[in-house]
Amino acid sequence: MINIAVYGTLRKGQGNNPCLMGSKMLGTHQLKGYSMVSLGGFPAIEKEEGGSVLVEVYECGPEAEQRCNRLEGYDPDATTHSFYDREEIDTPFGAAVVYTMPGILEERGNDRIDSGDWLNHMGSKRPVYG
């Protein structure tokens, strides 16, 4: 089992949450030291002092982890860069991994999400499922 912290389209009620089917939601956590940007239909985060991102932490089996890796374009065996990277973080529920995109905060044109909450940012525009 592995804990995965999610902050965007994998969160409860969002379109990619079914990737976490069979996983147990442990709770939410305010992840300090990270900031979020919108890449249009989905967000990305990276380390940044003073930032904060709201995450949901799930306890996942190997199948859910593989589905999340595929969705996020993360290949642990890649010799070149994956779409997202993974970092280990501490949460009140134990260690977890979170998908990050180093260098994303420096790119021009990315819409910063100061609240660190993807669902709040999407407001009434967000699709809700289930």
SSE blueprint:
Blueprint lengths: L1 E5 L17 E15 L4 E18 L1 H10 L13 E7 L2 E7 L10 E3 L4 H5 L8
Parallel strand pairs: 1-5
Antiparallel strand pairs: 1-3, 2-3, 2-6, 4-5
At a glance:
This protein has 130 residues and is mainly β.
Spatial strand arrangement across the major sheet:
4-5-1-3-2-6
Rg, alpha carbons = 14 Å
Distance between the termini: 25 Å
Number of strands: 6
CATH architecture: Roll
- How much of the sequence lies in strands comes to 35-45%
Total number of helical segments? 2
Question: How does this structure look, described?
Answer:
This protein has 130 residues and is mainly beta. It is globular, with a radius of gyration of 14 Å. The chain has two helices and six strands, in the order βββαβββα. Strands 4-5-1-3-2-6 form a six-stranded mixed beta sheet. The chain has a single domain (2-113), classed as Gamma-glutamyl cyclotransferase-like (Hypothetical upf0131 protein ytfp, Roll). It has helices at residues 62-71, 118-122, and strands at residues 2-6, 24-38, 43-60, 85-91, 94-100, 111-113. A hairpin with a 4-residue loop joins strand 2 and strand 3 (43-60).
For the structure shown, list the relevant keywords.
single chain, Hypothetical upf0131 protein ytfp, six-stranded mixed beta sheet, 6 strands, 130 residues, mainly beta, globular
